[in-house]
Amino acid sequence: MTAHRKPSAAAAPPLDDDLFSYYFSFFNDGAAPSAMDPNPGKRPRADDPSSSRRHVFSKPSESSSPSPSSADEEDEALQRPELLPPQPQQQQRRVWVRDRSSDWWDRYIDPELPDIEFRRAFRMSRATFDFLCDELGSAVAKEDTALRAAIPVRQRVAVCVWRLATGEPLRLVSRRFGLGISTCHKLVLEVCAAIRNVLMPRSLAWPDSAGAAAAAARFEALSGIPNVVGAMYTTHIPVIAPRVSVAAYFNRRHTERNQKSSYTVTLQGVVDPDGVFTDVCIGWPGSMPDDQVLEKSALYQRANSGLLNNQWIVGGTGHALLDWVLVPYAQSNLTWAQHAFNEKVGAVQRVAKDAFARLKGRWGCLQKRTEVKLKDLPVVLGACCVLHNLCEMRKEEMEPELRFELLDDEMVADNGLRSFSAIHFRDSIAHNLFHHGLSGTSFL
After folding, report:
1. Partner of 271 for a Cys bridge, out of 51, 69, 232, 355, CB 3.0 to 4.6 A?
2. Compositional bias of type Low complexity: which residue ranges (predicted)?
3. Which letter does DSSP use for residue 158 in this model?
4. Helix H or strand E segment including 36
5. Where are the domains of the chain?
């Protein structure tokens, strides 16, 4: 008989601890067929000495039938269970969960931790973080199961906020919070979806008539231009080169500046005088110019339907002059009045640029190529905008080292003049700024 050779241990590939969150081991009563048995369904021979044979089958004979005396003993044993031989206990299925260290998270959840250290880690104070957890609690909470306890709400929210704030790879986030890599990825998407569904309708919305009037008054005090209700800017978010329509996401301007191939998606936003977002448009390919991104947005459709009646949104040179979009003069050899107008429009647009700089500085995931798939990216970017609004509304301080410089390389729109009435209004505003002493003297 040929002896079975024990398989070599080198045949099994090593497991990467960072790629597996849980290890499962199931134990059942029945013995599984041996992998070394060439025919597991074949009845084993009675004289087979192999240890892999679990049962020995023999032909029943008359001598094997119970005798009367043995039958009486069996009846007595049934009446007296203590006489029965001990039966092996059924082995239940067990689940083995990999033990991970959560010392880092336990330190930050400690109430004794200084608030300034908590703010540096999560880009918000502990009070704002607690407010966020209270608002999202019912949407992200899970119940305990028979296998394991549910992850607490505070830890779920913290995983998402830390990931958005630092942009750390999921492998490192997993080690910090003592959770699996796939679990952390799932938590980020779940919490971002909850932020979109719960907080976005309340904290990122177009102002009502009273709010628009208040914004117009503050913008006019800043620039001297009446009826301005928002400042608009479009930035680019780096992404990994997609497999489909890769040319559409190729960003030529970033590629030339960085000396390496860059792929981006666009993020267009309108902000109020406080730098709070009132409208966002997320996810169009990075090769699309700013004016085309605006035409694809819901804001463009609503504005053309009468949302902005006798009101202005200040854009940049990449946008076109429309009946409701005010942009600076782009031609050379500007007049004194046109210089004055560009200076004041630039003051309004700096509000939007500063808001985007704080957005990218506070949420570091926007500065580097993300691991999120394109289909999930709008939810993540939208959550960043909502969290930005939450921090701005609650007057959260931003650390000086988090300041970010925007480099989006705006380009002049191909057709920057699309409304003759807007041309007349812009010239009239420029004339009033210059001849009524509202233009300043920096260009003189």
Report:
1. 355
2. 60-70
3. H
4. none
5. 103-202, 206-367+404-435
Please name which of 422, 210, 221, 233 lies closest in space to residue 312, comparing C-alpha atoms: 422
pLDDT at 144: 87
Q: How far apart are the first and last CA of the chain?
A: 105
The pLDDT, as a whole number, for residue 276 is 97
CA distance 325 to 232: 9
Q: Which two tokens stand for residue 13?
A: 């590939």
Predicted local distance difference test score (pLDDT) of residue 10:
44
* Dihedral over Cα of 168, 173, 175, 177: its sign: positive
Q: CA geometry: angle at 381 spanning 273 and 294, to 5°? A: 60
Buried b (16+ CB within 10 A) or exposed e, 21-53: beeeeeeeeeeeeeeeeeeeeeeeeeeeeeeee
Cβ proximity of 397 and 309 under 8 Å: no
Amino acid letter for position 128: T
- Tens of pLDDT, residues 390-414: 999 999 999 889 989 888 767 777 7
Q: Rounded to the nearest 5 degrees, what angle is found at the Cα of 14, between the Cα atoms of 12 and 19?
A: 130
**pLDDT in the model for residue 63:** 45
Nearest to 380 by CA among 372, 388, 391: 372
- Res 42: pLDDT: 46
Helix axes 336-362, 377-393, angle to 10 degrees: 100
Residues 238, 369 contacting (CB under 8 angstroms): yes
Scan for tokens 């946008």, then name that residue.
319
Identify residue 290 by its one-letter amino acid code: D
Taking the C-alpha atoms of residue 381 and residue 369, their distance in angstroms, rounded to an integer, is: 13
Cβ atoms < 10 Å from Cβ of 423: 12
The model's pLDDT over 175-222, given as tens digits with 9 standing for 90+, comes to: 999 999 999 999 999 999 999 999 999 999 999 999 999 999 999 999
What residues of the chain score a pLDDT lower than 70?
1-99, 409, 437-444
3-state helix, strand and coil shares in percent for the chain, rounded to the nearest 5 = 45, 10, 45
* Residues 188/381, Cβ–Cβ less than 8 Å: no
DSSP 59-110: ---GGGSPPHHHHHHHHHHHH-GGGSPPPPPPPPP---------HHHHHHT-
Nearest to 359 by CA among 380, 373, 342: 380
